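Format notes (please read before filing issues)

Several people have asked whether sequences and structure tokens are stored in separate files. They are not. Every record keeps both together, in the order shown below: the sequence lines, then the token lines. Line labels are part of the format and must not be stripped during preprocessing.
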Amino acid sequence: MQGLNAKVALVTGAARRLGAEILKLLHASGYQVVLHYHYSEAEALLLAAELNAIRPESVFLLKADLLSLEQVEQLAQNAVQRWGGLDVLVNNASQFYPKAFADVDENDWSILINSNLKAPFFLSQVLAPALQQRKGCIVNIVDIHAEKGLKGYPVYSIAKAGLVALTKCLAKELAPNVRVNAVAPGAILWPDHSVSEAQKIEILQKVALQRCGTTEDIARTVRFLIEDADYITGQIMTVDGGRTLFT
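Then the structure lines:
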């Protein structure tokens, strides 16, 4: 697939970590990719240069604050205009940080709910016509803790639970022309904030495979749902090395 004949994928939060891995794998699979970022401009520029060196003009950079509905709508419009359509939306961007229940304030609520739930909802809404036109798909990145909650992260867990519900709702709302699924990672990347070695050991003791997964594990699952899952919609694919067997 080349140029205007290639399929087009938008990945939010794609400058680094998991989003970058998903973007790189879709690019390697022949997609023209829209790389959304907010704060990570240096990483976004470096990744875009790397991928455009492989296939010229195959990466389109778009900066947007997903906490702003106006910028969400502009992101969607610009993504579609670049190559005249859209085949895939990957809602990966996420805010993630601990906050005890007693300490949560309205700002925490807004940041975590808006980034993990509100932005994917309205981005999907604006992009639905373009996705329907090409019989495309949406993949949401959720979390294994959406079901039972992660202690110390109540608002984040609530937001991801909402994203699971959104996945199932949109699978009904957008059928039959758009498939909507989600991937729920387990222990893949340690968070940016400090996690002690003792905490890591404790977490991995509860993983059946006794090791962390990789970003490639998640990216390959996303690609499967996009490329090889024509009869799958409304499903949550858990990629956790067996972590949820012990909860």
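For reference, the curators noted about this record: The mean pLDDT is 93. Residues 56 and 86 are 19 Å apart (CA to CA).
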